Model the fold of this input.
Amino acid sequence: MLALELKSFHATAHCGSITKAAQQLGISQPTVTSHLRQLETRYGVELFYRQGKGVYLSQQGERLLPQVEQLMQQAAQIDFSLRDLRDLKSGLLRVGATGPYYIMAVLRHFHQAYPGVKMRLSIDNSQRVLSALHDYQLDVIASSALVDDPRLVRLLLASDPLVAVLRVDHPLANRQRVRIVELCRYPILMRESGSMTRELCHQVFRQAGQEPTQLLEIGSREAIGWAIACGLGASLLPLREVPAHPDIISLPLSDVSAHLSEFVYCLKERAQGHAIRAFLEQVQAELPAPV
Done:
């Protein structure tokens, strides 16, 4: 209420008339009169001298006016900043992801559409980015984990086939397609426990009724790529995660079919925030398939 009263005081001081102040503010004259009376009564001060149809500031009013003008300038700046946030001319979008492979195109297109919005990308495992989302430390996340939670909005971002990834001189590299039974005869490189890619690989092995004879666990996608390039073994990876390396090739599987999906999540209660909503719209434009 104080803000409205001070706004009426500011307008009246500049207009020299309650009628003109009311017209400037777009409210009724009795409302402005009420604001001024409440302000003077509450604090026991006389802010204006009344003379005919006009008013002019008392000494107390003159002392108050510079402070109120400063407050009005701050209010105008706040209004300007909030309009910028609404129109996505400024702000910060905090994005979490388990890897850069699927989210980068969305980030690029979002930045092109809203260059004034800063973006911060954090890479971590699914459990940590999901926890950060629930703790309001991230605004949206991308993860291959399929989470059914009524508190979340979930959109499908991508779906990639699992392929065999080999060094160019691997014994199976000259094939058009690879069977799991053949691949399991050679060393297999796998992600660490808890990885969605590792879980999908085990599903593929079970589906084919096979078990790798040699298994080497490696804790990151990048390290698996280097291990393949160095000839330590082959691996199963989503197609878009295949390293771009001259000594590495990928081949489709012939006896099983498996896909790794990537999802975007946000808190349902925050889905209508301007930046988050615009980001979700961008995800749908990339692959318009809500699930």
In short: Residues 2-86 form a domain with the Arc Repressor Mutant, subunit A fold (CATH 1.10.10.10).
